[in-house]
Amino acid sequence: MKNVGTLVIASVRPYDSLDAYASAVANEIQGGHHQVADVTARDAITTQRRVEGMLVYVVSVATMYRLVGGITNDKWVEFSGGVSSSFFTIGASRSFDATRSYLSAHDLATNVVPIILPTNTTLTAMSLSAAVAANWDAEVRLGGVLVTGAVLASGGGTSAYSAAYNINFNAGDGVQIYCNGTGIKKPRVTLWFNRR
After folding, report:
1. Which residue, 189, 157, 190, 184, is CA-closest to 98?
2. 74: helix, coil or strand?
């Protein structure tokens, strides 16, 4: 595929490697790393200069942000410096059959003692498994109410996984994990969250 624009056939470099002048200005390139004065300036970065995964350091709050899941302003998430440091998982299970019931974390049913989220997060993935193949849904609930879109179907197998979620939760939310099925043998559900 032919490129369009000002085409160069070699790297753009300063005249001398000890030259005081830069060969490019970071805030004028597409993607990569930018540095801005405040959140207003971050949100004003033009869409033509945005790509998913780009980083922006905001001086006024001494925080790095990354675009995750798109390039609109609502897709900025706080970046903590490592891939694994921004993600965490929670899980719940039953060591016996479950029929339309809440699963347990550390031997406590999540409808009685919900799992409290420590920070603002985004649900990004869910997995489920059972000892025997069956049709059932894993559901995420808050206060006994199903969170819109937070459902994973088993598809009749012993396990299922999806990373197609982008559902925001707030620090302090009490997550409940529900098994919506009949006679499900030893169900287990894991949720993946990204801090935001």
Report:
1. 184
2. helix
